[in-house]
Amino acid sequence: MTGTTGRVALVTGASSGIGAATARLLAARGMRVVVNYLRNTKAAEEVVADIEAAGGQAMATQADVREEAAVESMVGQVQAAWGGIDVLVHNALIPYAVKPFEDMTWEELGGKIDAEMHAAFAVTKAVLPTMTERGWGRLIYIGTGLSRLPRAGMIALGVSKAALEQFARYLAQELGPQGITVNVVSPGPVESRTADAVLDDATRQRQVAATPLGRLAHPADVAQAVAFYAAEDNSFMTGTTAAVNGGLAMY
């Protein structure tokens, strides 16, 4: 991957898991990385320290991406320090209920869809002006294989991320003429603290057994796909979804 040196990447939800792995990898590829986080200041600062220790550039910025004013303030801080944002990796995980539809309220389903899309809308709106002005940009959204391959109890996440994927396709169609690519990285089950909360041992074992590559994804696997889409020389892929699932679902 060449030519990304000096580009500014904003990674939302970057204090742990996929976001942290992505922030570290993009920094290793020469980008200046904004490590967005919601609550865990210490973890975000550790990601920044790791990047700086490896010779990269990073800053931590707190913002709830569901709040437009907070997002605009964060982007303003980045512009003051480094100029505009060239690459958006929207990874922040919006909380959701894990339960069957029969037991679910509209607030749990509709609230998740609303919060998911509001966050994507807010961060995209905030970063677009600079990308449009420069005629170059990378918008990358983290989806989920559950959008296409349902699993019990995961309707709120699967439906909201399906909406996010379609949102990305519409943006790809609209923004292509302005030199901005828009893609989705869609992980299968990932080894992380979040996965521990929704995958019991029996479910985990079934997922591994059904995966040709014989394991769950690691955050670094997902980060590799993100970095591929973010690269300067990857200029002719847009409106696509990369499935990072070890062959668990092939589509």
TrEMBL record:
<protein>
    <submittedName>
        <fullName>Short-chain dehydrogenase</fullName>
    </submittedName>
</protein>
<dbReference type="InterPro" id="IPR050259">
    <property type="entry name" value="SDR"/>
</dbReference>
<dbReference type="InterPro" id="IPR036291">
    <property type="entry name" value="NAD(P)-bd_dom_sf"/>
</dbReference>
<keyword id="KW-0560">Oxidoreductase</keyword>
<dbReference type="GO" id="GO:0016491">
    <property type="term" value="F:oxidoreductase activity"/>
</dbReference>
<comment type="similarity">
    <text>Belongs to the short-chain dehydrogenases/reductases (SDR) family.</text>
</comment>
<dbReference type="InterPro" id="IPR002347">
    <property type="entry name" value="SDR_fam"/>
</dbReference>
<dbReference type="Pfam" id="PF13561">
    <property type="entry name" value="adh_short_C2"/>
</dbReference>
